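Pilot study result, target chain (374 residues):
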Amino acid sequence: MLFKLIKKDKQCAARLGVVTTSRGEIPTPIFMPVATHGAMKPLTPAQIEETGARIILSNTYHLHLQPGEGLVKKAGGLHKFMAWDKPILTDSGGFQVFSLPNKRITADGVFFKHEVTGEEIYLDPAGATRIQQDLGADIIMAFDECIPYPCDKAYAEQSTHKTIRWLKQCQNAMTDNGQALFGIVQGSVYEELRIMCAREMRKLDLPGYAIGGVSVGEGLELLKKVVGWTAPHLPDNKPRYLMGVGLPEDILESVERGIDMFDCVIPTRYARSATLFTRRGKIRLTNKNYKRDFFPVDPSCDCYTCRHFTRAYLHHLFVANEVLSAVLSALHNIHFYLTMMAEIREAIANNRFMEYKGAFLAEYLGNTGKKRPA
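Predicted structure:
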């Protein structure tokens, strides 16, 4: 994997770049749709590609539990197994493991219960790395401890040092198979810990760096602070990935601070509950006001859904509990995100990101800073 920094916006830290892998180029800033189990609810790989997706994310924890990395490897790797020939990034599963109840964290790894069988499972940095190598993703993530919020500083410091130590163990477990290992900067909401962690990880000269622990309930203002503290201490010539983020406003604030890559389940999860993104904010299509609304979801959108269907039709599908409601809504939401990212890249190329951000948010949130009705 290679990363080329093409330019920086003259007014802020926003960056334009490209990640090159053996399976294709990824322009940055980029949003990565999430296919947790090797499938993106409720879309086929062909539909995902139609939205303009250049890379997707799958999850090590879930694929380890079902169907197991051994079966995926035997099938020819995750790309072949799920019929997706573009790049894939796999999360190490750290966030999922540390979100589980009754887990037992040790200095070397984590014990947890299988969600279905109740069997005790142990996962450590070397094991998480081996699983991801068997899955065969292009970019793999180090196994870290995802610090909860809120968290006292003493625990956060101990945990951050553990994450650094675990990253070195992930590095040692890597074999030369062309995969790129990203480290994950932790440190909770403590500036000195974030900076320390970033500097220590930078010494390892990794292919890329992520910022973790910023989608655990801390809110946008703290997210902006954490990214602002951390990003300047990561190398310019490596991609920067903000994990689990997020809403359009989160992405715009983070691009301004120098972030290149994003992922989140929000577009597809919201789609399944009838919440769709438009230039004028989010709309809930189960609302009775849309029963006789014959406009597209977003009149400015050229996605498949908006070209062919109305809000009234989608309202009908949701009320009738038709599977197609989730399909059409997910197509729209993913397209909305990827269109926004393309516009962000164009704005950075023309040194007008701050202007774009201001105009987008003024329309999306309204001049009062609150979501206005569509």
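One observation from the pilot: The longest strand covers residues 2-8. A full batch analysis is planned for the follow-on phase.
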